[in-house]
Design goal:
Layout (H helix, E strand, L loop, with lengths): L2 H4 L14 H8 L6 E4 L6 H10 L4 E6 L2 H15 L8 E6 L5 H8 L3 E7 L4 H4 L26 H7 L2 H12 L4 H14 L5 H11 L11 H11 L2 H15 L10 E11 L2 H16 L3 E3 L9 H6 L7 E7 L9
Parallel strand pairs: 1-2, 1-4, 2-3, 4-5
Antiparallel strand pairs: 5-7, 6-7
Bound molecules: S-adenosylmethionine.
S-adenosylmethionine binds next to helix 3 and strand 2.
Length: 329
């Protein structure tokens, strides 16, 4: 591994401050020598700040679907974990869906003290028109967070039967006009395949009534297609299921999260927050976890002003308890 490359400031943006940065640090409360699994490495903002607290004896495992983000996050985390010798820092960068985190950890004998998931997409992805995630810039209708994933948004829009397309937009976009949008898309794609973000946006806007002061008419449809293209809710549910299963192992059997592990999830819309709330409440009520946050933590007004994308963020944190939970205190 080339140290000069990994520790080069050009490899990551040192000014990138992630959503709820201070709150994540305070609530996950990293301690020297602990292990973090960051399910959504992104630009390594959260993981880098946590790594700085873990020090050279700490360990960080990064997951991301996006190889470019993963590379940047790895550079940042290595430099933070062991500034004197980034190449020897204990960092694993895993290009995979976080659904695979429990199996990966089991295979590598890793037991995490902290688990973090900051859901959705990173600024590098939404700001790049080639990724097709935004209706603000023309680009190919792609939307894949994993550039090698088999199905793009264009394939969904052009091949799903009209009824399924309407169901998808209603479910993942919580869009009242889903049926009308699906009918219009079905008519338009008969003329020519819908392959660009700007064409999709203008078709959707043409059937969504405009209300002054409300969000862009294409917002909900874009959200729905992005969630479906990346199976975002399926992945989140699988991750939550894996956290719940850790707590039901027979006493004495080791899981991928230690008793006492802090688990933090940042969601950006109710489709994400609802399952997180449900799973965390179930774990708390069954006595397998303690709430670290009783209500979701949201960005301060100042953060919302500085970073408008943070406006919808909600952070929930629990602390797992279990057979030998007291041993970690
Ligand atoms: C909001 S960003 C994370 C930002 C990060 N916390 C930081 O501090 O820079 C979300 C990242 O998660 C990745 N991602 C989204 N869903 C994923 C999944 N199911 N598995 C792995 N990575 C995922 C995206 O590619 C993106 O890079």
């Amino acid at each position: 591994m080339d140290r000069r490359i990994l520790s080069s400031p050009m490899d990551f943006d040192p000014d990138h401050i992630p959503v709820l940065h201070a709150e994540v640090l305070e609530l996950l409360a990293p301690r020297a020598g602990e292990t973090l699994i960051d399910c959504t490495a992104g630009l390594g903002g959260h993981a880098g700040a946590i790594a700085a607290r873990l020090g050279p004896s700490g360990r960080v495992v990064l997951f991301d679907l996006d190889p470019n983000n993963l590379r940047r996050a790895e550079a940042r985390v290595r430099a933070a974990l062991n500034p004197a010798d980034p190449a020897s820092a204990r960092v694993d960068a895993v290009r995979a869906n976080f659904v695979q985190a429990p199996a990966w950890a089991d295979r590598h004998g890793v037991r995490a003290d902290m688990l973090l998931a900051d859901l959705g997409f990173a600024s590098t992805q939404v700001d790049d028109p080639e990724r097709g995630l935004s209706f603000r810039k023309p680009g190919p209708l792609d939307m894949r967070l994993d550039p090698d994933a088999p199905i793009s948004a264009a394939e969904l829009v052009n091949t799903l039967p009209e009824r399924e397309l309407g169901d998808l937009i209603a479910r993942f976009g919580e869009e009242r006009h889903a049926r009308r949008i699906a009918a219009k898309l079905a008519a338009e794609r008969r003329e020519a395949p819908i392959t660009t973000t700007d064409r999709l946006a203008s078709i959707v806007r043409s059937v969504v009534p405009r209300t002054p002061g409300s969000i862009d008419g294409a917002t909900r449809t874009f959200q729905a297609l992005r969630i479906a293209t990346n199976d975002e809710i399926g992945a989140l549910e699988a991750l939550l299921g894996s956290i719940e299963r850790v707590t039901t192992r027979p006493t004495g059997e080791q899981g991928w999260l230690v008793p006492g592990a802090r688990v933090g999830i940042i969601s950006f819309h109710s489709l994400e927050d609802r399952p997180v709330k449900r799973a965390f409440t179930a774990l708390t009520q069954s006595g397998h976890a303690e709430p670290v946050t009783r209500r979701p933590v949201v960005p301060t007004e100042d953060e919302q002003r500085r970073n408008p994308r943070s406006r919808s963020a909600k952070l929930r944190v629990i602390r797992l308890v279990g057979g030998d939970a007291g041993a970690t205190d």
